[in-house]
Amino acid sequence: MKRWILFLxxxxxxxxxxxxxxxxxxxxxxxxxxxxxxxxxDNGGNSGDSDEEQTDxxxxxxxVLVSLNDADGQVVAxxxxxxxxxxxxxxxxxxxxxxxxxxxxxHETGTCEPPDFxxxxxHFNPTDANHGFDDPEGPHAGDxxxxxxxxxxxxxxxxxxxxxxxxxxxxxxxxxxxxTALMIHSKADDNKSQPSGDAGDRIACGxxxx
Length: 210
Known about the structure:
copper, 3-stranded antiparallel β-sheet, metal-binding, single chain, 1 helix, Immunoglobulin-like, SOD-like_Cu/Zn_dom_sf, SOD_Cu/Zn_BS
């Protein structure tokens, strides 16, 4: 009889302990789930911020590549345009070009029809200014510093177009209606002669944004 009572007492104690342990595990599970949910919310918010930052960075680091062809349709240079601190930074790399100093401009129409590339129109000039950095009423927005081609026909130059933008809603945007183009000329730009610096023939042309 005493043994039976002892066994019953032990069984009751075991059941009570088991119930308490189950409640603690449930409480721990609920606490863990709450913490995980909070972390997911926090991470979700941070993830959104990160995605937004990545999108902003991608916009800031966006590159515009322009291939410049000669009169025979051969690619002789590639320009990379990016938004810079003082306008649009242009990096020009090329081969098989005539050695010497050459005029380098942004033209007002995004069409490059060989062999003379006159389809690109005149210099990009949204402010209706005179041509040339040496003209007191200049320069055109599309006027750029001359480039130097080495004896082996290669060029690697970096210039900044301070008066233009890659933003499509700006008056000086290179993505204006009808587009714009990059042009290399046969001679140096004297930075004062009207309307284009006496830079000679157009020897290479590339549409911006094509």
